[in-house]
Specification:
Layout: E1 19-20, H1 21-28, H2 32-40, E2 48-49, E3 55-57, H3 59-75, H4 79-98, H5 105-161
Antiparallel strand pairs: 1-3, 2-3
Length: 163
C-alpha cells in the first residue's frame, strides 16, 4: 500500500508513490528501529507523514538507506563518516543541478571549487580508512613473519632431534 506525502511534502509528480516504514525496512533489509535511528542521527531526512503520523519514504530515501548500508558493510564506515559522505554527495548533486555553462566565470569557478572541496573531504575520510587498514595489515604481516620464524625454528629443532 502506498500513499502520498501531505501537502507540506508533495511528491514531484502526482504519480510518485511513497512507502511506509515497514515497506522500506523490508526492501532494504534493515529494521524499522534502524530507519528511525538513521533519521534521529541525521543520516535520513525526516520523512513526510500521513495524517495519522505514519512515516512516508520516497525512492530517494530507499536509495540513501542502501548507500548507508553499503558504506557501513563494505567499507566499515562509522555513522558519522557515512553522514559526511552522503551529505557531500548531496552537495555535489545540488551543485550539478544548478551549474550553468552560460553563468559568469566567477560563479562557475565558485561552484567547481565547492565541489572540489567537498570531494577532497570525502577523499580524506577514505584516506583515513586506508591508513588504518594499512597499519592493521602491517601489524598482521609482522605477526605472520613472527609465526613463520617460530615455525622454522621448530622445524630446525625437529630435524636436529631426529638425527
Amino acid at each position: 500500500m502506498t500513499h502520498r506525502r501531505s501537502a507540506l511534502a508533495e511528491p514531484e509528480s502526482a504519480e510518485e508513490a511513497y512507502l511506509q516504514i515497514g515497506e522500506v525496512a523490508e526492501r532494504t533489509s534493515v529494521t524499522q528501529r534502524t530507519l528511525r535511528f538513521y533519521e534521529e542521527k541525521g543520516l535520513l531526512r525526516p520523512p513526510g507523514r500521513m495524517e495519522g503520523g505514519f512515516r512516508l519514504y520516497s525512492e530517494d530515501d530507499v536509495r540513501r538507506v542502501e548507500q548507508i548500508k553499503r558504506l557501513q558493510t563494505l567499507l566499515g564506515f562509522t555513522l558519522a563518516e557515512i553522514k559526511e559522505m552522503v551529505e557531500a554527495e548531496e552537495i555535489k548533486t545540488q551543485i550539478k543541478a544548478t551549474y550553468r555553462r552560460d553563468a559568469e566565470i566567477s560563479e562557475r569557478r565558485s561552484k567547481l571549487n565547492k565541489a572540489r572541496e567537498v570531494t577532497r573531504g570525502q577523499v580524506a575520510v577514505i584516506d583515513q580508512k586506508l591508513l588504518a587498514l594499512q597499519d592493521m595489515k602491517a601489524h598482521l604481516d609482522e605477526k605472520l613473519t613472527q609465526y613463520e620464524t617460530w615455525l622454522e625454528h621448530l622445524d630446525e629443532q625437529a630435524r636436529t632431534q631426529h638425527r
